[in-house]
Amino acid sequence: SNAFVVPGSRNGRAFSTKVGMSTTEKADEAKISKKKKRIDIMKNEGFFRNGFKEVREDAEQTMNQQFKSELVDSLRAEEFKMERDGVTVYLAKDYGFCWGVERSIALAYEAVNHYPDRKVYITNELIHNPEVNDNLSAMKVNFIEKKEDGSKKFEVVQDNDVVLLPAFGASLEEMQYFDEKNVDIVDTTCPWVSKVWNTVDKHQQNGLTSVIHGKYAHEETIATTSFCEDFICVKNMDEAEYVSNYILNGGDKEEFMKKFEKAVSEGFDPDIMLSKLGLANQTTMYKKETRAIGKLLQRTMMEKFGPAELNERYMEFDTICDATQERQDAVSELTVNAESLGLDFILVVGGWDSSNTAHLLEIPHMAGVRSFHINRADCIGADNTITHRSVEGEIVTEKFLIDADKKDVVMGVTSGASTPDAAVQEALSQIFVLNAVLKTKQ
Predict the structure, then answer these.
(1) Which of 50, 168, 290, 424 is the most buried (most CB within 10 A)?
(2) Catalytic: 125?
């Protein structure tokens, strides 16, 4: 379960402490949009989203030391190609940290420096990257643990503590919970994620059900759905086609609800709530699939209700993050040119639980280009094995460099939007050393 549970909640669901409200007051409360509730929280004096100028320079220096890479800078300067020790490397033209991730890390680092004598907590991983989260742990940032039922141990946060909200945001319920406590909140949510929240608010204002292309258990999607009234999450084209077919032809309601039981709003009724739709997405999803789902839903609503009612029945905004799109386009270009460049493989570096990084792997994989997704340099073993995450999500180990003793290695490399350049440098350095060792054994 991904339900938000606060201490004293009933049946795993948070309940209102506002007892004694009249029916009229409760109705007025329900009318206030979730966006308005979020904005009201953000206006409070203990809520910070623009960082702390007096410690900004220190935070920037720390980030440069930890995350920059001379090797990657050289690759970029040499038109994304480098030859070193019998290895030719082609770097994707867009890769690595995006602006939203850099901003999130900077805000977190500034907060740590700004509150040297306060206990700092974070509601989740800041971003899906092991090195960044390890660095925060080393800076004594406390990651709030999850309980067995999926809820979080928020009761550990005490008065006068500081709470960081991660790059993918926090749910409205979480924000309300901390807003009622005597704590300072530092919000590092990526503005692209907030853009999606504004989109689902428009759906709400127009009486639409939000169809979210995303993984219902992903932190960003959990946060996004908390700002929806009625919603359904579809993780891929297959699920979107199932929904489309139900809209056009009806079907087994019980089967529908079983299939989407964890991916719909409370009280969801597919016979009622699929008559007006708005599309939004988890910002890190595969761009082409989101567009295809949009076209499918548009055609479905036109076929069901006729073209005259389309604008009333269907709404779509482009909420795919620019950085996600640019990195996908860049690895697509590497993939298309893999044969002419003579690539032996494409290496994708980034957290194994990073959605945007996982989608970068799908592109060469679908084109039949040998490719690997590693989360750290030590996935590359001295015994010429590589431990990597497959597109199915399994962690597998296999032989890595083939015929390296007979020929030079030619490879492509890219990295996810939450991956520091230093992680790419460490992986490439590991490959240079491994290749040199294999050459000496010939």
Answers:
(1) 168
(2) no
* Most distant CA atoms of the chain, gap in Å: 83
pTM for the model stands at 0.87
Q: Where are the beta strands (DSSP E) in 72-117?
A: 81-84, 87-91
Contact 319, 195 (CB under 8 A): yes
Q: How far is CA 407 from CA 16, 86, 247, 281, 370, in A?
A: 68, 8, 56, 44, 17
**Segment 412-427 mean pLDDT:** 97
The two structure tokens encoding residue 6: 């606060």
Kindly give the interhelix angle for 99-114 and 56-67, rounded to the nearest 10 degrees.
120
- Residues 34, 14: Cα–Cα separation, whole Å: 16
Name residues whose C-beta falls within 8 Å of residue 283's C-beta, 6 or more positions apart in sequence.
190, 192, 193, 196, 220, 319, 320, 321, 324, 356
Q: Which member of 220, 229, 239, 289 is catalytic?
A: 220
DSSP state of 410: E
DSSP 12: T
Q: Does the pLDDT value for residue 410 go beyond 90? A: yes
| Tokens describing residue 433 | 């050393």
Query: Where do we find the tokens 């989101």?
Result: 290
Please give the average per-residue pLDDT across 135-154, as a whole number.
92
Q: Which of the four pLDDT bands, split at 50, 70 and 90, describes residue 5?
A: very low
Determine contact, residues 373/358, Cβ cutoff 8 Å: yes
Nearest to 414 by CA among 135, 72, 65: 72
Q: If we measure between CA atoms, which residue out of 438, 410, 415 comes closest to residue 425?
A: 415
